[in-house]
Amino acid sequence: MNIMMLLEMAASGCPERVAFVDPEIDASISYQELFDAAGNMAAILRATDAVRFAMLDVSNIGIPIGLFASGWAGIPYVPLNYRLTDPEIENLLDRITPAYLVTEPERVAGFHDRKGVQVSSRTDFVALARETGETPDAWSMDPEDTAVLLFTSGTTGAPKAAVLRQKHLVSYILGSVEFMGADDDEAALVCVPPYHIAGIAAVLSSVYSGRRVVQLANFSAEKWVQLARDEKITTAFVVPTMLSRIVEELAGATNADMPHLQSLSYGGGKMPLSVIQRAMELFPGTDFTNAYGLTETSSTITVLGPDEHRLASASDEEDIQRRLVSVGVPLPGIELEIRDEEGGVQPAGSRGEIYVRGEQVSGEYEGRGNEEFSEREFYMNGALSKKELYEESREVRPGASSTRGLRPGGLRPPPPTPAGLRPEG
Predict the structure, then answer these.
(1) With 50 as the cut, is the pLDDT of residue 405 above it?
(2) Which pTM value belongs to this model?
(3) What's the CA gap between 375 and 203, in Å, rounded?
(4) 302 CB contacts (<8 Å, ≥6 apart)?
(5) How far apart are the first and last CA of the chain?
């Protein structure tokens, strides 16, 4: 397995279709051009002594080039948080050198004398990658190769580097996205930071589906609304704070006037009930999906689909309305267990910690192994215990794998609404 498989298939299926658009500089790249640029850059990376490829920048066309070039070259892709302080960035660089670093032009001078770092500006990197160069040897198909290292926020100590192997990312995409499922006129608006797992997933899922991606480097509600209208965006992903600002931007309107927006997914935090209710009023023809996941699980593991949103919004019953603050049901291939403090498996509807496993689940940190895994190879996902889930049906049992689900922005039809609701937490 290798993420380059996904790009190779897209480039074969729709070579001339536009893959990514950077409206800031009015630039774009097709799927064939992206494949060629990844190959050119992979050959360059293999000629250096870099063992990691680091990206310290906002969303731009260099992001997908770097991600796929790393996969082709056989070295981990390491997106860094550009909002960190200089000392924090230096500490992370110490952990990944020798590295090839791409950053915004204004930062380049600060890394010229940095030991173990070969630095390039975003502009030079993209230009170099798009030149005609030597095609490298084939990429590795070892599923255990590390594809991405993503540093956690470090709120409880020094940031940990989550290890996402090729098998985790490819399994997630193959299991949740329909190949070439996007029509020619479909476009995704990506505004989440590239150092977030949602940013990685957006690149991979859009490529595999053949969708055009419009990149918003720095989010503002005004820019989001304008781009969504100008580019006739059909699908988008936002975090709750972004959606709240979009709703505020549209204050006074009775309709967002975006009939082309087919789906809007959200995740990355708790969604206030008032915000999602107002958003559904402003976007009446849009399918809303709550997508919950973690860095360690290669993105989404549970979803609350469009039908559940509409049923909950239309209901007068408080219990049904609460589905709008639920994270829904597991994706196909994901198993969940509810356990007590002693590790005992509890019945559905019980309070406790959520344990999760599946082909896309890593739970591994560089230098620390799979220490968060239990003896039954479940990832101890304590964070999800603070969320709410509801039963898929009255027959759901702890440890059972859901066979229903809807990937955010995906094309799998949503399931019928489950009979019961059981919030957790």
Answers:
(1) no
(2) 0.87
(3) 34
(4) 291, 292, 293, 327, 328, 329, 330, 331, 334, 336, 384, 389, 405
(5) 38
